[in-house]
Amino acid sequence: MRELVARYLSQSISRRGFLKGLTQAGLSVAAAQSILQSLDQVAHAQEARRAAPEGVKLFQGKGAEAFAEQLIASGVKYVFGNSASEDAHFYDALVDRPQLKYVLTPHEGPGAAMAAGYVKASGEPAIVMQAGFVGLANAIGQMFNAFKEQTPLVFYSYRTDQTRRSGRDGFEEVANQEQVVQPITKYSWLARRADMIPETVRRAFKAAWTAPYGPAYASWHADMNDENVRTEIIAHEKVDPRTRVRPNPKEVERAAKLLVEAKTPVMIVGDELYKAKAVDKAVKLAELLGMSVTQVRQMFANFPESHPLWVGTIPSSRVDSLTYPKDADVVINVGNKLQHNTPAPIVARSAKFIDLRNDNWSMGNVITTEAPLFADVAYGLDDLIAAVEGVMTPALRAKAKERADETRKFTEQARVLRAQIVKNPDWNASPLLADRLTYEVAQFAEKDAIVVHEAGSIGFHSFNFNPLGGRELFFYYGAHLGSGVGTAAGVKLARPNQQVICLVGDGSFIFGPTALWNMARLELPVITIVYNNHAYSGPHSRAINNSPGGRMVQTGKFMHDYLGNPDMNMASIAKGFGVDGEVVAAPGQLKEALARAKRATQDGKPYLIDAQVRRTGVGWADAPWTPPIRIAQERTRKV
Amino acid sequence: MSFLRLLLPLFVFTVLSAFTAVKAAEQSQPLPDGPGKDLLMSKCFQCHSEGMWKDQRLDRRGWEAALYRMIGRGALWTEDEINTMASYLGTALPPREAKASK
Fold it and tell me: Rounded mean pLDDT of chain A?
């Protein structure tokens, strides 16, 4: 018994283990509990005497309270969740912890998108919780987006089955729940004991927020939330490995030499720049070398688009598809994940390639690399700029200036050519051209507006994004649809003093409109604009591209893409969620609607415009064919 | 049921088969030569497959609108280039009814 007491006081066995030991030694349960109670007082006194190091707190209470305490210590302010009866003790814990704010989201998908939007716009941690596996299943789509987009979002859901009855195919039970999400998380773990809840949670935050970022998942049996625990709560800074690393100096020298000796260097920029707040350093390196700058698909705009060295985004997944410059001989990538959608590498083998990123797992997978710079992009650019400045000669500076002057001529001409978009003969048409809608919104948007964009099949232009204090872009990379409205709500929660405009296709919108209700409830004045052509335009065009001249085109029978008949009214849907809105179809109506949207948001209210846009592209009929599934003829009873 | 009504499905099937055969044949035909073809090949085929182009049938104005829509997707073309390509496409890939009536 003496040994048992010593082990309990040194925290090497649990309360349950201690009680079990005593009863096995012959004591009655009542006697064992009495001893435990008196020992708890001793343990408390011991803990009070023991000076906890800074950032480490000893906690005694319910498992759910320990969960809440660890969230606070991990820096969480907002908890995004959907109603879950087995989290009752956590909700109890929130009542007396007002610093943790619970945002009820009516569906786990848009709820997770909202949490991700908040994380992306604030740079602060958040957690999104679901009810057991059934809720998790709804959130997995946005977990996939967070994985692809490298967003550090932590997910939690309990196991519905309890510790003493798991594995019996109980209600909502799925065996190995935490393993279901393993391929799309950086860390997924089931806490084995209630006192390990805080450790599991802080490891999830550590994994998510260690570069390269990504989602993490924590879980435990529901009854652990109600179990009494003694455990440590540890601040995030005490476990954060702070993986902001500098690049290998030899590789920096090699990269600097390649860049200054290049005839036509090109820089690809990516999201690590935005996340590291290092866009200004990328501008400095580009200007130092007179180097053209471009980007392939990312979430953010990572370079000022009005800068004379910005040559536009890569049109066709390969650097050599750029109109200018041609024949790049050295390409440096700064923080772009380089999503390959074609067999050909984005950077041709003929160019020498420098890769500066914090994601060494994917470096060198497709593109051969002369100088790998595994580093935080801000530190990497600091070192590279210093190295380039060290080897620049007057002759090299003159060459860089000459190159910059040539690029400026191109970008000025490109600006003029892009402005021709208004010459489209259908410019004043009704329903609206999608380009006209985009153009008018770009004229309307504030100078520092944040544009959340989930209208993937439209051409995107006219905004002149500038992450250095101008307009910012939040696009998507993961493409699990239904993220736009939720993301916009989360962005507005994080940045209440910037105009937030959500541009979303009708197909995407209908996957996740429930976050409109959050906008109304939380008074998040977002302007949502739906490009409503009553169709999945992207899948329509891509299907024809995959099967040109096929049976669909021959017959006009497209099974998969027409969303009309009946047409959906997104403004009516918005009103159902408490958000005012209207339907517009003509350019004149649009301007008036935008003015009303502005007034609404100035008054703190969200607003939605359902903009009717024309279907354009191959094979669309005015009244598209729909599969002849009509049940009316099969009905024999009027019920 | 009349004899004509019996024949109707066969007639519809025959017409549709002929129509789809024409469409399939169109896919295998090379684009005709003409002013603007070289420009089109150099400007558009870096992003689009030829097969998809041939499925699109528009008059000149329709092609002009389609080309202007590409500006919003990053195309950098002058007005003259757009006009040349629109004229070529309006002739080479006109609406099916218009071509059939010639």
Answer: 94
Distance CA A470, CA A467 (A): 6
Contact status of A556 with chain B (Cβ, < 8 Å)? no
Q: In angstroms, rounded to a whole number, what is the distance separating the alpha carbons of residues A111 and A145? A: 13
Compute the distance between CA of residue A571 and CA of residue A48 in angstroms, rounded to an integer. 59
Answer whether B36's CB lies under 8 Å from B88's CB.
Answer: yes
pTM as predicted: 0.90
Interface of A with B in 516-555 (CB under 8 A): 541, 544-545, 548-549, 551, 553-555
Q: What's the gap in Å between the CA of B21 and the closest CA on chain A?
A: 9
Q: From CA A523, how far away is CA A545, in angstroms rounded?
A: 43
Tens of pLDDT, residue by residue over A245-267, are 999 999 999 999 999 999 999 99
Q: How far A422 CA sits from the closest chain B CA (Å)?
A: 8
The pLDDT of residue B102 is above 50: no
How far apart are the C-alpha atoms of A520 and A497, rounded to whole Å?
Answer: 17
- Written as one letter, the residue type at A518 is N
Q: Note whether A423 and B80 are within 8 A (CB).
A: no
Mean of pLDDT values over A175-189: 96
DSSP label at A351?
A: S
Q: How far apart are CA A488 and CA A474, in angstroms?
A: 9
Residues in Cβ contact with A434 at an 8 Å cutoff, skipping those fewer than 6 apart: A455, A458, A459, A531, A533, A613, A614, A616, B72
Written as six digits, the tokens of A181 are: 């999400």
Q: Closest to A554 (Cβ–Cβ): which among B23, B72, B75?
A: B23
pLDDT digits (tens, 9 = 90+) for A523-555: 999 999 999 999 999 999 989 988 988 999 999
* CB within 8 Å: A423 and B79: yes
